[in-house]
Amino acid sequence: MAEENVEMVDYGWQHESNFEPQQVDVQKYTHQFGRVLTWEADPWYDVCRSWYETCYIHAGISGFENTISGPDAQKLLSDVSINDVMKWGINRNKHLVMCDENGLILNHALFMRDGEQAFRTTAGNDWPFMRLLAQGGYDAKSTVREVFVFQFSGPKSLTILEKLTRTDLHDVKFLEVRPVSIPGIEGEFEIDRIGMSGTLAYEIRGAKEFGPAVYMAALEAGRPLGLKRLGWRSYPVNHTYGGYPQMTCTFETACYADPTFPAPWPIVATGSVEPENVRARLRSVGEVGWMWMAKFNHDFIGRAAVEAEAANPARTIVSLKWNPEDLAEIYASLWQEGEPYKYMEFPAAQQEPAGGHQDYITTLDGKKVGYSATPIYSSWWHTTISESTVDVEYAKEGTQLLVQWGDYGHRIKNVRAEIVRYPYSNVTENKDYDVSTVEHGENL
Q1: Domain membership of residue 29 as a residue range
Q2: Which residue of 10, 175, 343, 398 has the smallest Cβ count within 10 Å?
């Protein structure tokens, strides 16, 4: 494979790209990875209820779309993914997971198959497969463009998208990609029945330049139906309660442990775990509950380590519910003399990006048994939980543990926590959602 056919991704850290319109009523924007994106538009408390009551729109994962095409495109993805990518229908999605030789997760992202020799992704970290492609030996090429990706989630999501596109989309299956048009906007767009909230959800995508117009049209269509604008401030909530571990939210990519990775920033290491403990901020396949995706019918990078973990798992993922009385003491310390406990923001106690935040989990007698990601408050469930990885022998609902909340070297609060159901949200999942109960929107 000639190197001139490998378009290494410019991750956009040195330029500014806007995929959504700038609106005067947005409370705050954020500058992330060279992109200006909404931090908070509608109040977070209301937004964090929207995917249970109505619907939200989120533009925050807009960015680069990478297409891998050619006779060896499928083999390339197979060589870097724990998944079996050979059983894959056209216009369908797969959540691919890529590891290093130690079985630690480098990348996980949604990929779309467009044809026999064409695959796309609009999220995650392209480095694991782009590095392999650049080394040669694959008859494949990479093509990169900038796209908007707008996520819609909640019981009104389908109705709103049908109103936006003036099209009956009730027959779009889970994980299916379908082209759509939007009246009044001349462009090529697609809808995808996928989401990260654990309930009915979709994405709509298209070329970057159409983003602001599509966003405003979606707002116009959705506002009468209760559409809320979700920003990065509230982004980790649906992942945590829906049971979707996520790089930058609950753990970090193991790319940071590779000295050849071209990232210009280090892990932001917060929490009671020592900052130099990089491993605590990374995750293996089993530690996030994704071993069911691993198929050992093909060779892939890290297979030996993943296979060893499958045979003898050490830790697994759980939901930890934090004790509200202990949480109240954390805030009460602000009105006491001396160093207060580490302040907890809302709804994410350590605000995004928070993948580098890890707190020790211990037994009641002080034995360290795992790591807790940043605790997340839900205005729907009126509780605080954290996505955590614990030793398998303790991973039972009802187990009482302690989380050492705080930053290393500062005051630490031992917060009582109980292992509860995972995922915590128990609403009907997207794949099982009966869309016949959803109001049609194409004629609204």
Answers
A1: 6-231
A2: 398
pLDDT of residue 15: 46
Q: What is the DSSP string of 53-94?
A: HSEEEE-TT-EEEEEEESTTHHHHHHHHBSS--SS--TTEEE
Q: Which residues contact 439 (CB under 8 A, 6 or more apart)?
A: 156, 159
Q: Is residue 362 part of a domain?
A: yes
Closest CA to 124 of 37, 253, 282: 253
Instruction: Output the six-digit token pair for 382.
Output: 């009126």
Residues of the chain with pLDDT under 70: 1-17, 33, 264-266
The secondary structure element, H or E, covering residue 150 is: strand 141-153
Q: HSE on the CB side for 418, CA within 13 Å?
A: 9
Q: What is the pLDDT of residue 30?
A: 85
Domain total of the chain:
2
pLDDT of residue 262: 81
How is residue 125 written in tokens? 């970290």
Instruction: Give burial (CB, 10 Å; 0-12/13-18/19+) of 101.
Output: exposed
Which pLDDT value is given to residue 31?
79
- State whether 152 and 203 are in the same domain: yes
